[in-house]
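Internal ticket #5521
Category: modeling
Description: The requester needs a full-assembly model to guide mutagenesis choices. All entity lines are attached below as received. Residue total reported by intake: 740.
Assigned to: D.W.
Attached entities:
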Amino acid sequence: MAAVSYELVKQCSKTGARAGILHTPHGSFETPMFMPVGTQASVKAMSPAELKTINAGMILSNTYHLYLRPGHDLVEEAGGLHKFMNWERGILTDSGGFQVFSLSDLRKITEEGVKFRSHIDGSEQFLGPERATEVQMALGADIIMAFDECIPYPADYNYAKDSIMRTTRWARRCLDAHTRKDQALFGIVQGGMYKDLRAQSAKDLVEMDFPGYAIGGLSVGEPKPLMYELLDHTAPLLPAHKARYLMGVGSPDCLVEGVMRGIDMFDCVLPTRIARNGTIMTRRGKVVVRNAEYARDFGPMDDQCSCYACKNFSRAYVRHLFKAEEILGLRLTTIHNLHFLIKLMGEMREAILQDAAADFYKEFWSAYKA
Amino acid sequence: MAAVSYELVKQCSKTGARAGILHTPHGSFETPMFMPVGTQASVKAMSPAELKTINAGMILSNTYHLYLRPGHDLVEEAGGLHKFMNWERGILTDSGGFQVFSLSDLRKITEEGVKFRSHIDGSEQFLGPERATEVQMALGADIIMAFDECIPYPADYNYAKDSIMRTTRWARRCLDAHTRKDQALFGIVQGGMYKDLRAQSAKDLVEMDFPGYAIGGLSVGEPKPLMYELLDHTAPLLPAHKARYLMGVGSPDCLVEGVMRGIDMFDCVLPTRIARNGTIMTRRGKVVVRNAEYARDFGPMDDQCSCYACKNFSRAYVRHLFKAEEILGLRLTTIHNLHFLIKLMGEMREAILQDAAADFYKEFWSAYKA
């Protein structure tokens, strides 16, 4: 029995959208789903109790960050990441590839892996397929990710081609290094904006029979229509009986567009990051609650929302908290944004179950301003 | 019927300690009690829901801060402070005197009141007895405080004498300006470290028949034994059927010593401030959870504590959160410290009800390191 399996509950008859259940050692979670990001073993500003209240299922954490601080050995000694951060539900760890490659000047890529300098103390560090897998086994998430290269946008064709071939070789090495039976290792399809490279990457990884697949390297600066075009092209190349995870995508419109193309899982720092800047997500688009126009607005942040923040506090109060730099302000906007995306996915799931994804899509776009 | 009344439930037969109930328009609260401070209409890092979970009864807010931002008129328009910050239980507002006088170079005192510059935008502002009372009536707390001068330590005798006489004249003017029947105005005994001035201040204010009395101007830098000596002297000068509130005192030992001398109410930023620095309060004294020695300590922050933080997270995790500058870290230490002080007061109340305050005191000091 695989540690993690995807159960397809309903395939929309008119669109690519699908509703499913992701079974993991820490519970079964309905898809499509948005996974809040807890980079350093904490979803910024949230407690685990609050995450449960907003129905978070799986959350994300990061190999690069935890490897450097507090160290995977310490987390393992604590009994693993679930116990360390007191989160009984699902956890997915990213491999650290994305972060290491983002260091640009501070890293050097070889076939072996990536040498880089720690952003904390400048010390020389190394992550490669085996090391990233070993670290993720110590952390003990339910789903771990292959160590890959996420190439920038735009990228030269030949560089992109070399990169996906290396990423595929690395994926093989990750599979070979992965020995924990109670966690699943997902492969990551790369290929930049080149359809033939996406097809090649998908084909090679599908042959390796990963228990689930991510699409990486999108939402890296390209126009949204181009991202959607690549999703149209790539998602159908992945097996229908396995979960499909679109990495690093978190705006409401991109989530809706992704689900329509058959994506089951999403993660992104966007909702928590913009929350800390005083911006909330709504079905009508963003609202910058911190703005002066809301100083005497005694209505809720989002009048369509039932979260703790919207039920109990006014825009005027939240704005005051931001102006006064009170922590409660960013706590409230964070609760709202995560609740909003999780609920959006739940509502879309209901629509899919009723074979009404297309109606949902139309209704969403009739109100939403990107 | 007075807006606020103190009900003496039990006077300890051997010490000054007493257990009571403070009745307010927003509920009745058991005393002795510690009141968390929410200077800017938010107890730093806490939500109202969490404050209820740790059994907070009354909380404090500040006239000076709310007058400048967001403005008392805005709070009044929101329906008052309770509604603005979503706190249905008791609120006490300090008069702003303490903050205005702390501005040192930025303020000028006259018989009329104090001219000062805003710490936010440098604008010229004024607070005096009438204005501070008017602002506090607009905010709408259950208990408001007279506008007083809190003199520094040490202070010249003649300055202190002039100051308490002015504070007494100001107290009279506050009483005259106060017209809201649903809130109580407390007087504040001052007098620095001079017993005769404390006696004079207490006598004058008691003659004015305030519904409750605070002792101000202690814990301003003097040695603790001197503070206790002044409490021994001053508390008995206040009427036994009214609440006694020791302002700005919040270390566990000072709370215990204060209760033994007949104090019913305390407030202080100390528990929340040191929490944000990674320090917690315990029955054995302070623990700097942020310290390296706790990096692999997988036990709770305080093994005698039942708060959300101590029940669910380890010292190692909380230390990691502080090192990684995660907001959850200071949330957890804040929850713990407030829970600790509120519970300490509850336990002391139980001991008083059993006429065992002296035993409690002895047991407390057998473990506590100040």
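Resolution: model delivered.
Comment from assignee: Chain A has 15 helices and 16 strands.
Ticket closed.
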